Every structure is written in C-alpha cells, then in structure tokens.
What we know:
By secondary structure, this protein is α/β, with parallel strands linked by helices.
Amino acid sequence: MDNVNNNIPSKNIATIFLVSGELDKALPAFEIAAAMAAMGISVNMWFIFYGINSLKKPQNLVQRLKYFFKIMRNSPGRIPETDILPQRLIPFLNSPTCDSLPLSQLNITGIGRLLINFVMRQKNIPQLAQIVKETEALGVNFKICQPCIDILMLDIEEDLIVKAQASGVSSYIVDVMESHYNATF
C-alpha cells in the first residue's frame, strides 16, 4: 500500500488571523498558537483592525490624549505625513487594550469581562497579557497589516506589549499558502 499521507503538507507552519477584538476570540487564538509553537510548529499570527487591540499596552486617558497633541514619529508601517485631523479620533475612541477587551456575548458594559477575568484569576488561569507574552517567548511571529497600522496611528515599537512587524496582504497570502494550518478568529 502506498503512503496514505501524500496529501498532507510536509511543512510544519501555521497561520492564525485575528480579526476580532473580543476576549473570547483572542484567548483561543493565542492558546492555539502557543500550543502549536510548543509542539515545534512555526506559527505566524496576523492581526488586523480590532485584533490588534489584543497586543496593545494598557493606556490611561492621558496616554490616549497623545494622539491629539503629539506629532507621530515615523515607525514601521506609519506614514504620518498623510494623517488627517479626523483620524486622530480613531485611536482615542478605540481604547481597548490587552487588559480590557470586551466579550462578544454577555459583555454587559464590561461587567462580563470583569467577571471572566476575576474567575480566571481565582482559578489561576493566565490573563490574556500573560498568554501573549508566553506566546512570544515560544517564538510565534506577530505580523500586523500595514494599512491598519497607518489608519489606527499605531506605533508598533511603542504601543505593543510584543515585538511585531508590519506586513502587507501579499505577505499574508504567502504565509497562508505555505501553511498546513490556517485559522481565523
């Protein structure tokens, strides 16, 4: 009998695409990425729009006001010369960070998120920020859609809790085509 596994790619590469900025979707995305990386699989995690919030450092109101008054420096993926005044509202209004992602259901103005985080702490389950850092330590590659970086006025060197790179959609397509596992959350 011939080898039955002829259709299975020989590469151990996975691509996970996080679109959602909700805690109950970010947690499984990072847990799957961490498990695969721990098994020796090369994992690329892609982030777009609200999914980027799972990587953002906590910011208070004063820190978010920097978008109104600070001239943004050139950082990977950013073209500050093309910024327009209404654009400065986007990062201010898009306030969730890794510590404050809402739930997709039963959020109830943030009470549901607080309850889930409380239960996770009581049961010694790591919080999202800790899982993100552990995922980075396991060697997962974090890639952020370049246009999203520019639209959201994100400084990927200053605003994120992990090191990430700015990449375009063609890079995502290459990652997907080389992967044996692809998932979107």
